[in-house]
Amino acid sequence: MYRAPRGTVDILPAEQAYWAFVQSRAAEVCRLYGYERLDTPVFEDYGLFARSDAGGTDLVEKEMYVFEDRSGQKLTLRAENTAPVCRAYVEHGMSNLPQPVRLYYLGPTFRYERPQAGRYRQHHQFGCEALGDPSASLDVEVIELAIGFLTSLGLRQLTVLLNSIGCRQCQPQYVELLRTHYEAISSEVCDDCRVRMVRNPLRLLDCKEPVCRTFADEAPRISEHLCPDCEVHFREVQEQLQVLGIGFTFNHKLVRGLDYYTRTVFEILPKREGGQSAIVGGGRYDGLIEQIGGRSTPGVGFATGIERIILNLKEQGIEAPPLGGPAVYIAHLGDAARLAAVTLSRELRDLQIGVIASTGGKSLKSQLRQANSLGVRYTVILGDDEVARNEAMVRDMTANVQATVPRASLSDHLRRC
Ligand code: HAM
After folding, report:
1. Domain residue extents for the chain
2. Nearest CA to ligand 1 atom 25
3. pTM > 0.85
4. How far is CA 211 from CA 130, 252, 254, 274, in A?
5. 43 strand-pairing partners
6. 342: CA distance to ligand 1 center in Å?
C-alpha cells in the first residue's frame, strides 16, 4: 500500500471549500491593494536558496529538498518564495516598471521538517512582496494587508510581533555586542547556541531552550543599537501602525529564521497558543536582490501558511462557504430512459446547469439514495413510461415534493427553479 509521503496531505474534496475560501479572500485582498499574481516554478536552481551569505540557517542546512536532474544540474524544491520572486523580478527586468512592483503568490513550498500539527513537508504559502521602494509605509502596507486578509476570513484576536534588526551598517556592530554577551556565558548555553555564536549569532535570540531564553532576555537589544536611518524607519513604521489602529507587541528577540532580513521583521500569531502558532511571517529584505545578482533594490513582504490558517479557522469554528455541487441528479430506469438521460444531461449542461447522471443499472431506490447523499437540489426521474409519454418526474429534494413536467419544458423548468 502506498501512502502520501510523510509530512504531506491529500486535500480531499471535503476540504476544498476551505481552500477555495482562503484562496479567494487572498486574491480579493490583493486586488484591493494592487498586488498582481506571479507564479514561479516549483523547483529552482540550488544556488538561489543556498547563497553564500545564507549559511547558518536551518532552512538551507537541514530543510531543503535538493536533487540533481538528468543533466546533473543541482536543483531545489522551493523552500520559500521570496528569493524566487526576486529572481523573477530581476530576470524579467521588472525594475523598469513603475516602482514598487507589488506581487503575490499562492503555491506549494517544501521543507524537510519534523511533521506535526501545522507543520508539513509540503505546505502552501500565500505571500506578498513589494519590490523597489524603501519606504516605511510599504512595510506598514504589507502588515495591514496581511491583517486585512486574516480578518476577512473571520480570524480575530491576532497579535502582531514587531522588531527591527537593523541594516548592513548597524547590524554587524550589534552582532559583535551580542557575541561578546554570549562569550561570557558560552559554557552555559545549549549546543545549538554554541554553533549559532559562530555561524548566525542573531538566531541566539530565538532559541527555544528554557535556559537560553533567559540569556536572550538579558542580551543587548538591537533596537537600542540601530543607526539613525534604521531608527527613523522603525519609528515611522510604528507611528503609521498606530495611526491605522493596528496594535503590535514590540519583541526584541524576534529575528526570523531566514538570513535575508533587514530593518522591519514581524510575525502574526493567532488566538491559539503553541509552538507552531505564527501564521504570518515577514519583513524587509533590502539586500536580497543584490545578493542574487540584481541591482541593489529594497523589498518587503510576508508569507502565510494556508494549512495553518485552515487549522485556525476550524479551531475557531469558522466555516467556509459551501462550494455548491451539481444542482440536478438524473435517475433512470430502462433502456429508452438511459438514452434520454444522456441527451437531457447534455441539454442541461449546455444551459450551465450542473448534472450528475446515474450510471450502471442501479435500482431506483439506490439512485435516489445516491441523489440524496450528493445533496443535489433536484432529481429528475426518467422511466421508459415517462419517456414514451414525453414527460419526466422532477423531485424537489429540499421540499420533498415531486411533479410531472413535460419533456419539452423540462430545461426551462429546472433553469427557473
Ligand atoms: P516563514 O516564516 O518561513 O517565512 O514562512 C511563512 C509562513 O509559512 C509561516 O508563518 C507559516 O504560516 C507557514 N509555514 C512555514 N513552514 C511551514 C511548514 N513546514 N508547514 C506549514 N506551514 C508552514 C517565509 O517563508 C518568508 N519567505 C516570508 C517572507 C516573505 N518574508 C518576506 N517576504
Report:
1. 13-170+226-315, 328-412
2. 80
3. yes
4. 38, 18, 17, 19
5. 77
6. 48
Say whether 328-412 and 13-170+226-315 share the same fold.
no
Q: What is the DSSP letter of 206?
A: G
Q: What is the pLDDT of residues 39-60, one digit of tens each?
A: 999 999 999 998 866 556 788 8
Question: How does 136-165 read in b/e, with b if 16+ C-beta sit within 10 Å?
Answer: bebbbbbbbbbbebbebbebeebebbbbbb
Over the Cα atoms of the chain, what is R_g? Answer: 28
| Separation of CA 143 and ligand 1 centre (Å) | 15
Residue for cell digits 444542482? 327
CA distances for 102 relative to 1, 80, 214, 291, 302, angstroms: 45, 18, 40, 20, 12
Q: Name the residue with the closest Cα to ligand 1, atom 7.
A: 304
Candidate from 201-210, 247-256, 287-296, 385-394 with smallest mean pLDDT:
201-210
CATH number 3.90.70.10 is the correct assignment for the domain at 13-170+226-315: no
Residues within a 6 A CB radius of ligand 1 = 80-82, 111, 113, 118-120, 123, 125, 127, 129, 257-258, 278-283, 285, 301-305, 307-308
Q: Which fold has domain 328-412?
A: Rossmann fold (3.40.50)
Give the three cell numbers for residue 206.
Answer: 530565538
